[in-house]
Specification:
Number of domains: 2
Helix content: 40-55%
Structural class: alpha/beta
Largest sheet: 5 strands, parallel
CATH class of the largest domain: Alpha Beta
CATH architecture of the largest domain: 3-Layer(aba) Sandwich
Distance between the termini: 87 Å
CATH topology of the largest domain: Rossmann fold
Number of helices: 12
């Protein structure tokens, strides 16, 4: 009997050791809910490709903290209700330790309560300032905010001595948010908004709204706040009506797909965007140049598609997470969250990131470059 008990004990011990070894070497699950299909696919598709190619590269080098990464991606089709369902699945069934995703503002806002309650670090790839203001303990983001976009555009308007503007905004969550932020910061910038128009996400002709703007004699420039196909339609209609006023778009159209959809009508359009779009045009001493050139070359070689700022946001989010986990020395969710918040001097595709307990973005206006579309390509505005 004593021998039998000894064998049993040894068996239990061996099983425990094996189980412990499996736990130590098990893959770490990272979640991503992205708009891979649907009206925001120009956001989600490059984000998904980026996360997949860099997770593969990280795993080929041995993973993080001795563990490989398992990326779990769900496609919400730009539907906040779907995003909410997938967020719950990632928490309850997949047991993720961190989340990088949320292509759109609507989807991100729908998912925030889930990850806050579960106390899982969530790095969003969407634009609206409401994602990080007020500050939520577990929520961060990588793209520049809509407030910053308004401020950057207004700074350019002031340099051109243009003081009175019209805004045409999309009715989506991002379009409405940026419109609200522009209205809020305009007085401080010395800009007067004299007329406003809106359009729906399924509208295919914005000529009536733009005709109203064209009829306003005191309008000196026009801003379109929105993303997706809507801004491309607005741009085409703008040129069809032969409106000569300077025209600005948001950073929500910062991809070659916008130029393709808008066609020749995109000529002369200005927008704030990340340095990534002009990687090869940056001066040699620009700190971001090595990062953005490397990402651009990697993405375009592996995907066969032009680089966009949206894939860059995913790259930044993943790398901020990975560096935080390395500093934490483990994948303990609370420790990783704390280290994300301590991110300092991180050189990403979107800018130099310096986060803090009161700033879960960590970018300032220097991270934005003012671009103008010329001859079907991005150029830096002097």
């Amino acid at each position: 009997m004593a021998i039998k008990r000894l064998i049993t004990a040894l068996g239990v011990t061996l099983a425990a050791l094996i189980a412990g070894g499996q736990t130590a070497s098990a893959e770490v699950k990272i979640g991503a809910v992205l708009s891979v299909t649907g009206p925001a696919s120009f956001l989600g598709d490059p984000e998904k490709k980026t996360l997949e190619m860099y997770v593969e590269e990280i795993n080929a080098k041995g993973g993080v903290n001795g563990q490989k990464l398992q990326l779990i991606v769900y496609d919400d089709g730009a539907k906040p209700s779907e995003a909410l369902t997938f967020a719950k699945r990632l928490v309850d069934e997949d047991k993720i330790v961190a989340m990088v995703g949320g292509s759109t503002t609507g989807s991100t806002l729908a998912m925030i309560p889930v990850f806050e309650e579960a106390q899982i670090p969530f790095i969003s790839l969407a634009g609206a300032i409401q994602i990080i203001q007020p500050v939520r303990k577990w929520v961060f983001k990588t793209p520049h905010t809509d407030t910053m976009a308004c401020e950057k555009i207004f700074g350019d308007l002031n340099r051109r001595n243009l003081k009175t503007i019209a805004i045409i905004s999309g009715a989506d969550a991002f379009g409405k948010s940026m419109r609200d932020q522009c209205v809020a910061v305009a007085p401080k910038a010395g800009i007067t908004i004299v007329h406003e128009e809106t359009y729906g996400p399924s509208d295919t002709d914005m000529t009536p709204q733009l005709t109203n703007i064209k009829g306003k004699a005191d309008v000196q420039a026009v801003i379109n706040t929105g993303f997706g196909q809507g801004p491309a339609i607005v741009t085409r209609n703008y040129r069809q009506l032969d409106i000569k006023l300077p025209f600005y778009q948001s950073h929500g159209v910062a991809s070659k797909q916008f130029i393709s959809l808008a066609g020749p009508a995109a000529e002369g359009v200005r927008l704030p965007a990340a340095a990534l779009l002009v990687a090869d045009k940056l001066p040699a001493n620009d700190r971001q140049k090595p990062v953005v050139v490397s990402y651009k070359n990697t993405y375009e070689q592996k995907s066969g598609q032009p680089v966009s700022t949206f894939g860059g946001h995913a790259y930044d989010g993943l790398m901020i997470l990975i560096e935080a986990a390395k500093r934490a020395g483990s994948w303990d969710k609370a420790k990783v969250r704390d280290e994300i918040e301590k991110t300092k001097d991180f050189v990403g595709t979107g800018g130099i990131v310096n986060m803090s307990p009161t700033d879960h973005l960590g970018l300032d206006l220097t991270a934005f470059r003012m671009l103008e579309i010329k001859d079907g390509d991005w150029t830096l505005v002097p």
